[in-house]
Amino acid sequence: MKKKSKVVSYNKWGYIFLIPFVVVYLVFQMIPLVSTIYNSFFENYRSGLTQVGPNFVGLQNYLTIITNGDLPTYTVNTLIMWVMGFVPQIILSLLLGAWFTDPSLRLKAQGFFKTVIYMPNLIMASAFSMLFFTLFANTGPINSLLLQLGVIKEAYQFMSHVWSVRSLVAFMNCVMWFGNTTILLMAGMMGIDPSLFEAAQVDGATATQIFYKITLPLLKPILIFVMITSLIGGLQMFDVPQILTNGTGDPMRSSMTLIMYLNKHLFSKNYGLGGALSVFMFIITGILSLIVFKFTASPEKK
Amino acid sequence: MSASTTAVMANTSLMAGQKENGASIRVRRIIAYIVLGLVTFLCLFWFYVLFINATRSHQELSGGFTAIPSTHLIENWTNLKNGTLPIFNGIFNSLLIAVVTAVFSTYFSTMTAYAIHAYDFKFKKFMFTFILMVMMIPAQVTALGFLQLIGKMGLDDSFIPLTIPAIAAPSVFFYMKQYMDSTLPLSLIEAARIDGSGEFRTFNSIVVPLMKPAIAVQAIFTFVSSWNNYFTPALVLHTDTKKTLPILIAQLRAADWLKFDMGKVYVMIAFSIFPVIVVYLLLSRYIVGGVTLGGVKG
User: Fold this and answer.
1) Which residue in A69, A252, A271, B161 is deepest, having the highest Cβ count within 10 Å?
2) How many CB atoms lie within 10 A of CB A12?
3) CB contact under 8 A, A127 and B227
4) What is the ipTM of this complex?
């Protein structure tokens, strides 16, 4: 009897150790989340020096960002740049992962290559895009290199063409994230039972056949995980296009992402539209998170 | 006779097969090395150009591209130091915030993970599921309410909203919990109890030291992500001397940069990037190993 009461008194420490997390989470994430949702139902902005609102307007803010075309346009921009960066990234990562984990290839200096490909991931995104901005400027080194080599006759204005800006953003995202994806996929590939590969080799399967018939199907769960986490990250795309275009999303707002748009509202203190946009983002990332949650939580049950 | 012939034939065909296999492996290996070489170039080229350009003066930079470093690195640095950007404040602020964030987030996440790992209580399962579910929700989504809140609390333009929230870091928690599952036996905690150690002392003097490898990995990750963070600090900090490096870089971009001394610009970028690269090269073993466990990507 005495022992039991002692066990109970130990377990109360479970609650005590949870206090910091719970308090900080409630204050700095839960309350802001609730007040963000609350704000989305109010008209509340500054027009010059006059403050409009807060007045309750129901779903008007949601209607506004959808009907004035902002939300659809910026969602499409974000998705285009994500896809442009993700497709080459996943192809490259699958290829590198397959090579690194292939025992018959016996690649040397793997540690060096892994270190190099992961490095861009740790670089300050704002500094990296500032670097690209200066490198690809009209008078920058890339243009002068291309001129010196005679590839082009006059400087190419990378910053004033829709697809060159989008390509630069996608390229930077790809360079920054393919190392991370490669390492995640490698972990998945190394988890595949090696006897399957041996059996396929004995049966005379080629490396290409093994990749398509064994590696890829067995890798499907981790591929989906990588894709969805990358999509969640992609929807948050901000630093790179923000710095590259100085927050304008130029040319013609074709590289303006959802978070850049949110950032604009936060700076101009338009809490109604900003709130509606946040709730929209919250619902989408929430749905995507639930899918990821299924993947993360399932090994826990084993 | 016939048996040995068959054996020899089988042997030769096997050898032929191996030879063919060997040749195709050699081709594939060469292709792999070529692609890896290109990828390495793709990753390192930008930093090489950055390094070269940081050593060149403004006149040299406007003269076109070269692959050989020049001699103006110190001069560019002195110009940047004496310029209008509060660069030393920026470095100090970035360092301070990143260190405090790393300490808070690793220590308290270990504590949260320990609460769920070592004790049995009513809401244990609920808490664990809840934290996993909110793990992927980005900070940007709640930024609006967050800004209003810190405005009301009078914490605007201070470092508190950039450091204290790191105490609740679901992805760090998840990593710590996984690490504990594999390395922290409950019998050890029992033994400490029998020896009369209080629960809090057990946590600090037994659990935390045992968790050192995991804490180191996560400390690096949280340090780097805080060092690189631009979104939240840009919304919270307003005074020039309180700003962090990413905000100063954004200001550099917003300024009429054509009038800028480009040598200064490159040194500034180099100064934000190279410290992280040096730390990374020293610790890359741990970092690359720690990637596989959770976190949001881009």
Assistant:
1) A271
2) 12
3) no
4) 0.84
